[in-house]
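User: For documentation purposes, I need each entry recorded in a consistent format: the amino acid sequence on its own, followed directly by the corresponding structure tokens. There are two entries in this batch. Please keep commentary to a minimum and don't merge the entries.

Assistant: Recorded as requested. Entry 1:
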Amino acid sequence: MNITFNKKNLVVSGLMVAALSQVLVGCGGGGIAGIDPGVSSAVRSTGEMDVTIGWPSGRSIPDNATRIEIMAMDASRTTTKTATLARPATKATLSGLPAGDVILQARAYDSTGALLASGESTMRIAAGSKSKTKVDMNDVPVPIAEGRYIQNGTISTDPAEPGIIKITLNALINRTDGTPVIGLGLSNFKVFEDEIAKKLESVTQTNSSGLTDVAFIVDTTGSMNGTIDGVRESVLAFSQSLAASGQDIKMGGVAFGDDVRDSVELTNATAFRDWASTLSAYGGDDWAENPLDAIKKAMTDFAWRPGAQRVILVITDAPIHEDNWITTRSMDSIRSEMSNSYIVHTVTYDGTRSMGRKGNDGKPIRATGRATDRDISILAKATGGLDLKLPWDGYVDLEKLPIKDTILAGYTIKFRSHPALPTVNRNIRLSVVESGSAVADQVFVGKY
């Protein structure tokens, strides 16, 4: 297999690696959707294809683009083969391709393996003839370790719009001052699906009909005795406020100590309030508590709605157990499992290891627990949430949490894809662009 690097483009023609046609025609007995796997490959209808790769903005392919990979696959993405094009190649023709729809993807890398540009094209192969197509490449920005904004959101499909993938983005949170970012449009976002640049169909600011699911994670151990009444009333008042906001909001809850105590699934305001009104403080054998298992229960067991913004609110007066005899989970593992799909707000004391606090037995605490015990408020900072301080009487103004405001400051971003059957996991990278430069990056996991 050979390629030619021209100043303006890359022409892929000539002889293709035999394995490509073998994979696309007969690997695994699958072939292209609609082709009977029992028919001999010698009599199947096939065609050829010349591919031209255009570099972004009409520029010549740069010297540092040392490797370009082209992937050809059937429309369901169940049969794939990657061919690597490297200097000093001349020409290649993709031959022996079964007639029907074929997706072409191209990725260009430099000598270090860094992705420079990518693109995608879909075409129909005609039996017994040679087709031509072009894959226009798009620059791929260098990933940003810590961008200007924090992004949280979910990936979903809509049966009413086959092939359209929707990113439901919680409000972009300014990392500096915690405020939501509004007023962004189509030119401010770039989406890459498994490293392939996607053309955006639309970008819209979330309106009043946006869906939001909220899970309350509440510490109900004995050390909360002096505050639980205030916490309960605060939660009830806030849930009523959310319900009266006119938004489409569901609420659920998990009570915890060193383990998960009881819970209520995401539901309407009335059913949630019935559960929250029973919150009381009791038991507990140590200072640190275990909100991580409670968060995991909510993430795993609750029926979070597709396309809904996902909010978790943790209320506790203690540091957390992590990676010990109480739980094998850690703050980092929970953060990873969230896959940037949740925003976490916390309500904690001003330093949950403050001297002079009372323990579960009601006696003053002189020790502060293990030196490694951490505050759950770290999770709020990592996801763009806020940490409110829990007062001595437990009455906290949860209206300070920007949950209702961020509903209106979110974004819905749509792009077209090629869902596979069976579904597969996809990495969706979303970059925020301002003045032509990427200022924030996030990767979401979708399955479709």
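Entry 2:
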Amino acid sequence: MGIRTKLVLFLLFFGFVILGALLWSNNAILHKTMLHYVDQRDQQRLERLKNNLEVYLNYHEPINQIEDISPRAWRDLMKVSHRSDFSQTPYAMPLLIDRPRSRRFRPPHPLDDFERRVSLIDLNNRVVHGAEEGVATILLPVMMEDEKVAIIGYYPLHELVEQADIEFAESQMQVLWFGAVLVTLLVLILLWPLANHFLVPIQELTQAMKSLAQGKLSQRLIAKRRDEFGQLQRDYNHLASTLEAAQNSRNQWIADISHELRTPLTILNGTLEAMTDGIRPITPENLQVMQQEVDVLKRLIEDLYQLSLSDVGAMRYEMRHTDLTGLLNLAIDYFSEKAKNKGLLIYKQEINENAAVYGDATRLQQLIHNLMQNAIDYTESSDQQTGRIEVSLIDNSKHWLLRIEDSAPSIAKQDLQKLTERFYRGESSRNRETGGAGLGLAIVSQIVAAHNGELNLSQSDLGGLKVDVLLEKQK
């Protein structure tokens, strides 16, 4: 069974439940309303009967006791009380009650439902005329010369008994059922396009997910809706874009690794073949070239290993009180000789002597070493101008600001944020002959993120790159 059919059937079932409840409640309300209407109508007639009986007693001189009222007079009083009230026109009473009858016998008019539920009761609670069964719930006193002489008792309805009332209630129920059938047909007509309104985006998303599972990452959905389905379509587009970018990054990653490994291996292989064939002699200089390429491979493999650990969350961090100033001074002393051999100078600018952070000393040392090595690798020196590297450790409110900036060459502004990407070097001036594999700043970014810090890259006033690392102070 398709989702469209399920949706339509569910909505129909829900609608039928609501409709059934409405019909049942309307039937109960209609029944109660009709009973209330009939009861109000009967009470008005009962009031007229009371008034007419009082007029009859006050203006009918032969009547001294309530028992003297004849059954015929009682029936006549109940009949005329259906429409007439003689309390304002008592002179008309003799014309209608106890008027002379024709000699031809006529059977008494049958009592209606109201008349069968009304009794005339004397002061001793004895029924003089009318119904004798049950207990009257409404009692109206009958007055004669300001003295209570009798009681009119009334037994309210619990069910409709008049044919007109029953037919009216049945006609109303027929109207309700007709309306229910009409509403059901309208719902069926409206539900099908409504089901499509909800089903079409689900079908589109299902097909798109199938394509995604088959590796077709370029498919996108048109997200024009503003409801939850539209948000789901936008989320799918974001997921597809992320997966496509990840796949492209993975392909580029594999290509870059292959290139980075191929270059030193090619040099090593060529050197070894030349030595084997006797083309190049086995000299300390040639062995030194091979050693340098082995060092490049070793560093590349170590960087890849560190990044893989960070990606899977296996890079261990032992957080403790760490002297950031001491780590920075050790790194400056270590790299000063390397910088000098390349014709560069390292300058200590503002170095705070009490910089303490809560972090992993080994990883923070790796961070500083990567930044220093990156500055040395990508800073040039010439006879006209000596390369310059400036190091600062500044108190920046709640953070320590570690800043390392170097002189030319620089990098374009649009490429600054790409420097933390793996194997990215920017323009041709920053290539693998002068620098590394392009993994140093990627590792730095991972370490900074693990310490809840912030890494900012910008162009330096010295002409090169400025790296700012914000780390929280020790609390």
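Summary note for entry 2:
Residues 427-437 have pLDDT under 50 and may be disordered.
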